[in-house]
């Protein structure tokens, strides 16, 4: 049971013509030592892509778990300017994952004002992300934390979707990968190669 990635995202809303600027990853932390050294940078980029994609497609006030192959992205959309996403394996407990994203969201909002979030042009200094990711690696420890810190918000229903079900009609993951500003040309090539050989790394 592992948490691979935690991200605070400022999702960008779609324009009238369906165009949008890329979402901004305001803070992130990752633990990718279970992936090969060769693939880690591409996996990290795909984690960012996955986090941004599901954050953009989560309504304000909504909490959901989005499954893609062997991974689940748990997301909470606090308001128009802020969403938090944790990417875990399928065995990681949902309640612990949702507590992690909720706790990260509350800590981030306590640290930064809405104006700072809205005006940020790059990532903001948020060391709590690394600490929270470390703290929640062990679900047994996370469960102990839950017993003490569970709040009413954390008992709300979580929607469950697949990545395919999250995409809008006529959208395909391949097309999103090609257009993504979160992915380098090397990672896009890695995605296509991995898909052909059926050796998935994250959102493939």
Automatic annotation (TrEMBL):
- Gene3D superfamilies (alphabetical): 1.20.5.110, Longin domain
How is this protein positioned relative to the membrane?
A: Lipid-anchor
Q: Which family does it belong to?
A: Belongs to the synaptobrevin family.
Q: Name one GO cellular component term.
A: Golgi apparatus
- Give the PROSITE patterns listed for this entry: LONGIN (PS50859), V_SNARE (PS50892)
- Please list the residue ranges annotated as the V-SNARE coiled-coil homology domain: 144-204
Q: Which organism is it from?
A: Coemansia javaensis
Report the transmembrane regions from the record: none
Matches recorded under SMART domains: Longin (SM01270)
Give the matching InterPro entries.
Longin-like_dom_sf (IPR011012), Longin_dom (IPR010908), V_SNARE_CC (IPR042855)
Any Gene Ontology biological process: endoplasmic reticulum to Golgi vesicle-mediated transport
Keyword terms of this UniProt record: Coiled coil, Lipoprotein, Membrane, Methylation, Palmitate, Prenylation
Where found, per UniProt? Endomembrane system
Under which name does UniProt file this protein?
Palmitoyltransferase
Q: Does the keyword Membrane apply?
A: yes
Gene Ontology terms for molecular function: SNAP receptor activity
Q: Which gene encodes it?
A: YKT6
Q: Does the keyword Coiled coil apply?
A: yes
Q: Which residues form the Longin domain?
A: 7-136
């Amino acid at each position: 049971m592992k948490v691979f990635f935690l991200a605070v995202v400022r999702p960008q809303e779609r324009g009238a013509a369906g165009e949008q600027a890329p979402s901004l990853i305001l803070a992130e932390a990752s633990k990718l030592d279970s992936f090969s050294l060769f693939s880690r940078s591409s996996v990290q980029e795909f984690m960012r892509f996955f986090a941004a994609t599901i954050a953009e497609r989560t309504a304000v006030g909504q909490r959901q778990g989005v499954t893609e192959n062997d991974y689940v992205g748990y997301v909470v959309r606090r308001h128009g300017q802020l969403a938090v996403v944790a990417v875990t394996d399928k065995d990681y407990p949902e309640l612990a994952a949702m507590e992690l994203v909720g706790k990260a969201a509350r800590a981030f909002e306590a640290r930064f004002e809405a104006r700072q979030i809205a005006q940020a042009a790059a990532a903001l200094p948020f060391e709590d992300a690394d600490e929270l990711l470390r703290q929640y690696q062990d679900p047994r420890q996370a469960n102990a934390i839950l017993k003490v810190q569970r709040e009413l918000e954390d008992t709300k229903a979580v929607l469950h979707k697949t990545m395919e079900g999250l995409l809008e009609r006529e959208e395909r993951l391949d097309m999103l990968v090609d257009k993504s500003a979160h992915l380098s040309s090397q990672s896009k090539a890695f995605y296509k190669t991995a898909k052909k050989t059926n050796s998935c790394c994250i959102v493939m």
